[in-house]
Sequence to fold (1036 residues):
Amino acid sequence: MDSLLSLFIGQYVADLKRSLALFAPELVLATAFVLLVIVDLIFQKSKYITGVVALLGFAVATIFMIVSPANTSFGFWQMYVFDPFSNFFKYIFLISGFAVVLISFFSNELNKSDRTMGEYYTLILGMTLGMFVISSAGNLILIYLALETMSLSSYVLAGYTKEIKRASEASLKYVIYGALASGLMIYGISILYGLTGTLSLFQINAFLTQYQGPVFPLVVASLLVLVGFGYKISAVPFHFWTPDVYEGAPVAITAYLSVASKAAGFAVFMRFLKAGFIDPTNASEQVWTMVSSIDWKFIVAVLSVLSMTIGNFVALWQTNVKRMLAYSSIAHAGYMLMGVTVMTEGGYIAVMIYFFTYLLMNFGAFYVVQLIANEIGSEELEDYNGLGYRSPLLGTAMAIFLVSLTGLPPTAGFVGKLYIFQAVINSNMIWLAVVGVLNSVVSLAYYAKVFRNMWLRGVDSNSAPLKYSIYAQLLVYAFVIPTLYYGIFWTPLVFWAKSSVMMFIGK
Amino acid sequence: MTELFLTLLIPLIGSFALLFIKKEQMQLIKYVAFGFSVISFIFSIALLLKFHSDNPNFQLTYEKVWIPSLDIGFRVGIDGMSLLLVLLTTFISPIAIYSSFDAIKKREKSYYALLLLLQFAMTGVFISLDLFLFYIFWELILIPMYFLIGIWGGKDRIYATVKFFLFTMFGSLPMLVGIIWLGQFIGTHLVHVPNGFTTNYELIRQYSHFIPIEYQKLLFWAFAISFLIKVPVFPLHTWLPDAHTEAPTAGSVILAGVLLKMGTYGLIRFNLELFPQASFLYTSLISWLAVFGIVYGALVAMVQSDVKRLVAYSSVSHLGFVVLGIFSMTVEGIQGGIIQMVNHGLSTGMLFLCVGVLYERRHTREIEEFGGIARIMPAFTVFLGIAMLASVGLPGLNGFVGEFLTLLGAFKSPFLGSIWFTVIAATGVIFAAVYLLWMFRRVMFGTITNPANRGLKDINKREWATFLPIVLFIVWIGVYPSTFLKLSENSTKKLVNKLERIKFGKERYELPVIPEISKPNNTNIKNNQ
Fold:
């Protein structure tokens, strides 16, 4: 008995040691989080030092990501999964983390003289940590906890400029919607637990493979869990918070929410579907067979079409650029859901490619919006007239980002769309591809409005050129160049996504 | 091959070179832009000299795989039809640039850079032998055109340019779906390519007629919508009058001269070549649309009060002949269509230049405002007269050749099988005479009623220089069209042979046996039913 116990403890310790070694990037982020609080206490005067510490945290985490072996295994007693799929998304979070901190450096609304920025960067680190965990979580409770870690940080960040009324409003709305969504989700999880007797995705999968009982409670539980994910990726009909929060939050945070937070939602949703609901005995590389009689294909297709169509059509009537980009991000969630709908490796690869391109162009677009808002103090479409001539760089950059968001060659956005459509057509859902392209035309109508105002209106105005520092300018190039580069030479991107689609499903 | 690259790339290089010139050096900017464009034209002449018109296959081809995982490549090459259209592009572009020297007075640098970029993209469209590359060039054209109309256009330029942009996009995105679907289908079901996907045009062309008809139908429309909008064929033409009217003169010249031909080019290159069975099915439908467009365009042109709008509607009418010729699927019809594309580029381009001359002097294009111009501007009258008569289709000038051949093709066509297409289309020639001669009379003859017209100067040396080369070719094609018809004859025969073989099981035309230069490699045939 005694030896059995010590054997058990020995295994326990061994597993813990192994997991902790793989868990190093997350530990680094957690350490940076604590360190930042201390640094903030010491250097209260300085605005940038905390940001620099956050950047260092991200940098060290990146190094640990790179040096850690490409391992595919469980960690922490099947609570946690280490696989190329989660690594891909962790890189996305890290790049977004760098981007959001750098963008925040150039934000006038954030860097007001009477504001301390310590908590801001601390919360960004916390949010990133939550995203790291969620992309690797293999257990429903861990998914829920990570989701809450992320959400709580983002509620505060959305209202960080608290003297601005719309920011406080955004934060409050975000909390209320978030509370509702996570309440529904945990309810769904509890039903799922009641049905299957386990919280591990892999055991749920094993259970469902043999499951013969009534389908209805399973459907209800799955849909309730879906509410939580749908809320994070802001898919219609769980999108109502998005426009208000995106409009009210500081631009940098809006960009971060629209990219990283959405990526986290997609990562966990894709894992939930693949690890939990495909039949591992019957799954080929190409087409997955789904267990149980939940028609995920249909459900996701409906979400996708609704998100694209509603997102795009409502965006047509927006007069505020930030709000317009909010609706456009809903539409983009719809495009990406197209890739999820097909339930093939190819579809998942397409979503991952899309995410990388979306990261570049969406961050870029929001960054330009922020630089413009710094100078003219407005995000209204009407105030953009003639800006192309007041700042050719920002005008050109914005045009490139918007063309990329529309999905026209030769930009990165086109590559993302190309692979999504290819995956959809490959699985014979031509109708969905057609809906997708028609939506792109609609999206062009409102994206074109922005560069119409920037370049075609106010041609003869001779207002003063916009001013921004050389570093701010360099950051614009940092988004523009890859957007164009990956639009022409995208093979490495595809290679990366292909080698990352491998997801550990416990077999 | 080198010539082909240079013809394609020199405008692009020029476009970048302009960015490094200070914007105060206006003369330098103008002449650098013009110079690059002319050099590109010279290389395209070299292209012509290297071209063997006997050979019906693609020549001067070059292939470099770009995205191996999807078998997307930088594949270029020309046959007779693309050579003619490349020549048209490189010929019209310097003229368009030269004609804007006085007309454009703001932001010259961006203007000329965009024109050169446009020339690059247009050339690219005509020489692409890869569907994907074609699509990229096709979309690239939108960007310079959007700004050319939107910044340097007339009063309603923003409305016109947004409409143009949306219409074209609406057409081209289904084409993207079509390209992906086609690549997928060919790559996985008909031939083995490494990743089950290819956009190699020559490979697809060899196997695409094995695609089952129910898929071909959908693919046909995925491509056709895009091209029919670009041509434009009734009822998809409504963007054209606005875009033409609001564009700056050079923009209209290029729009009418080259851009519209991309649509008709696409119809031959993709719809007829790739989806023959579906084309047989829809030939009557599209021909009726073309015939209707001929008459409709002419009738609407008749009631226009704005000269530029009148010319724009005449384009709808004239392009109808091209489409009719193409869908007659006879050698005469397609050859007529091709030569008519060139003709329309020359004569309508020249008409727009003439309108530009009037507009620069009077800042109006209303027919009412003019009258009796012939007495004040005699040289101009001659040029406008030539352009107008060429457009009407007077024998001895180029328009006649094209219209005659297309009508003949439609008459003889075994695919259309009704003479009514020809009969009704022929009325379009009469209507064309009516609206163009009437316009000419109201603008040029009569007494000078408007005192503002009295002091007008006749055309200057620069304008002479823009008109003369066009007149040369108008007369050349009118008198001795074989020079040009010969270039595309064999490639057209090859196409018609293919169509007739599929439909009737036999080929009519003898062609010199020249082996295809580039054989698709890494492929083996899966299903050759």
About this structure: Strands of chain A lie at 73-75, 80-82. Residues 491 and 497 of chain A are 10 Å apart (CA to CA).
